[in-house]
Amino acid sequence: MARPVFSVVIPTYNRARLIDRALRCVVEQSVHPAEIIVVDDGSTDQTAEVVAGFGPAVKYLRQQHSGPSRARNHGVANATGEWIAFLDSDDLWHPDYLERMDQAVVATDGKASLYFSNAVYDFGTYREDYWTRCGFLPSSPIMYIPDGSSIGLRPVQPMLLPFAVFKREAYLRLGGLWEELWSAEDTHFFIRIALSEPLCAVNTAGGVVTADEDDPSNRITISFASDTTKRWVGVVKMYNDLLHRDPPLKPEHARVLRRRLADSHWRLSRMAWQSGQHRQSWNHLLKCVQTDPGEIGRTLIRTAKRTTESLTGRAKP
Question: What's the predicted TM-score (pTM) here?
Answer without folding.
Answer: 0.89
